[in-house]
């Protein structure tokens, strides 16, 4: 088996994987778009957050279709040694690469802007939903435990929150270095958990 035969085989296998991944994404997108209820039922207790997935069904269909097309072009082009199909395949790859680089540059340029938007959205939601919505509380507890942080900014995110009011001025235990209950604002400030 020569070098080019191995490269050709790898190209066919790689593009076959892209094709199958695209078909899977396309099928998931169609399923979510057509019958979002059964998809949400599958998610069970996380179904309230699953609505976001239902909204991206059409996006999954578009991306899946592009992947199916790319996989087909690459697989057939490599199998048949078709210069036209391979040129089309590599042109699409080049366009996607340029778009990714441009998206990365834009994301880097506007990262502080995006952080401000996220902060403006997350902090009020944290004040309102933490402690009252079990799913939100579990997600935040896991996040704060894993990242060893307290809130989005620091313990002040919880000052005046529903959680603090309902727990007699206590903050979540992750806001104090020594996970003590109750964790007061004074203890949280002394711990300086970011």
What is this structure's SSE topology?
Blueprint: H1 3-34, H2 36-43, H3 47-55, H4 57-80, H5 83-109, H6 111-129, H7 134-147, H8 162-166, H9 185-191
Helix pairs in contact: 1-2, 1-4, 2-3, 4-5
Describe the protein's architecture and organization.
By secondary structure, the chain is mainly α. It has two domains: 3-109, no CATH class; 133-191, no CATH class. The chain contains nine helices and no strands. It starts with a helix and ends with a helix. The mean pLDDT is 81. Interacts with SLC19A2. Interacts with NTRK1/TRKA. Its main location: membrane. Keywords: Glycoprotein, Membrane, Transmembrane, Transmembrane helix.
Which keywords apply here?
single chain, 194 residues, mainly alpha, 2 domains, elongated, Tetraspanin_EC2_sf, Tetraspanin/Peripherin, transmembrane helix, membrane, Tetraspanin
Q: How many extended strands?
A: 0
Radius of gyration: 24 Å
Share of helix among residues?
over 70%
Q: What is the overall shape?
A: elongated
- The count of domains is 2
How many helical stretches? 9
- Give the averaged pLDDT, no decimals: 81
Structural class by secondary-structure content? mainly alpha
Largest sheet: none
How much of the sequence lies in strands comes to under 5%
SSE series: HHHHHHHHH
What distance separates the N and C termini?
A: 58 Å
Low-confidence stretches: none
Quick description:
With 194 residues, this protein is mostly helical.
């Amino acid at each position: 088996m020569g070098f080019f035969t191995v490269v050709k085989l790898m190209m066919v296998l790689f593009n076959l994987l892209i094709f199958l991944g695209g078909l899977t994404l396309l099928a998931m997108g169609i399923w979510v778009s057509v019958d979002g209820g059964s998809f949400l039922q599958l998610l069970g207790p996380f179904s309230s957050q699953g609505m976001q997935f239902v909204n991206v069904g059409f996006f999954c269909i578009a991306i899946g279709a592009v992947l199916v097309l790319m996989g087909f072009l690459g697989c057939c082009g490599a199998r048949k040694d078709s210069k036209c199909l391979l040129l089309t395949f590599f042109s699409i790859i080049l366009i996607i690469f340029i778009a990714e680089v441009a998206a990365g540059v834009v994301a880097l340029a506007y990262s502080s802007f995006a952080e401000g938007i996220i902060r403006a959205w997350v902090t009020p939601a944290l004040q309102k939903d933490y402690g009252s919505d079990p799913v939100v509380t579990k997600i935040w507890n896991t996040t704060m435990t894993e990242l060893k942080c307290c809130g989005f900014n620091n313990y002040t995110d919880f000052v005046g929150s529903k959680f603090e009011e309902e727990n007699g001025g206590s903050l979540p235990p992750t806001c104090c270095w020594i996970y003590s209950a109750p964790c007061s604002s004074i203890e949280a400030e002394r711990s300086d958990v970011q």
